[in-house]
Amino acid sequence: MATIASTLQNVNKRIAAAAINSGRQPDEIILLAASKTNPAEQVKQAWLAGQTIFGENYLQEALEKILTLSDLPIEWHFIGPIQSNKTKRIAENFAWVHSVDRKKIADRLSRDRPKTLPPLQICIQVNVSGEGTKSGVSPKLVTDLAAYVEKLPQLKLRGLMAVPELTTATALQRSQFHMLRSLYDQLKQDGFDLDTLSMGMSEDMEPAIAEGATIVRVGTAIFGPRRYPIPEELAAHVTR
Ligand SMILES: *Cc1c(COP(=O)(O)O)cnc(C)c1O
Fold first, then answer.
1. Does 11 sit in the ligand 1 pocket, CB within 6 Å?
2. 187 C-beta closer than 6 A to ligand 1
């Protein structure tokens, strides 16, 4: 079995190659290791191999890992769907949240963010595939939500995030990344101070980087297939 150090190195090479191929610098792209379902020990292996940013989807699982690994200065990002009764523990334990898609959640995260911590770094999740079941604000409502988040005292709006529909059709996949990029450019033109486009996963990091991704969220290509089945009640929210 490949070690995490070697899979991580491969992913970093893929990122660098994709950057060069699109005329970008490799260091413009940050790798977030999506560690859901993988135990703390695997996260630690990745840390020892140089990875410092990790993303988690399920709060309970994440809190256990954060506690177990509290001696490591890991930067934890929350990337999963958010129920409103979970905002307090998310606001207390994470540096970033990528999956804000409604005002109520933004309000609560700002209210629950301890004043002793820096503002919570926020991406707005956009539904770029138009599928009814998927998380994310509709593209039409992004500007309104961005204006709202920008005014909340304990939040810092950084950019946009998407989980496009998985498709083997490269053109369709790219068009979804392109749509997120266009929304991002539009917001910047409108005066929002943004620097983050969170898009691209194990299967599609190259087209995402070609369309301007600044954070790619990669799980399987680092940790291998997920460790255990995703709980059924959560599976409804999981898109892949
Ligand atoms: C699991 C997950 C990823 C990583 O997906 P892989 O296909 O395993 O690379 C990225 N983003 C989100 C929101 C996820 O839930």
1. no
2. no
Per DSSP, which regions of 79-226 are E strands?
A: 96-100, 120-125, 155-161, 196-198, 215-218
Question: Probe ligand 1: pick from 10, 56, 79, 209, max atoms within 8 Å of CB?
Answer: 79
* Contact in structure between 227 and 36 (CB atoms under 8 Å): no
The reply to whether ligand 1 has any atom less than 6 angstroms from the CB of 217 is yes
Q: Which domains does the chain have, with CATH numbers?
A: 4-224 (3.20.20.10)
- Cα dist from 237 to 10, 31, 175, whole Å: 29, 23, 23
Contact 146, 155 (CB under 8 A): no
Decide if 2 contacts 42 (C-beta within 8 A).
no
- Indicate the range of 51-65, 122-136, 152-166 predicted with least confidence: 122-136
Give the global pTM: 0.93
Report whether pLDDT(190) > 50.
yes
- Residue 34 Cβ inside 6 Å of ligand 1? The answer reads yes
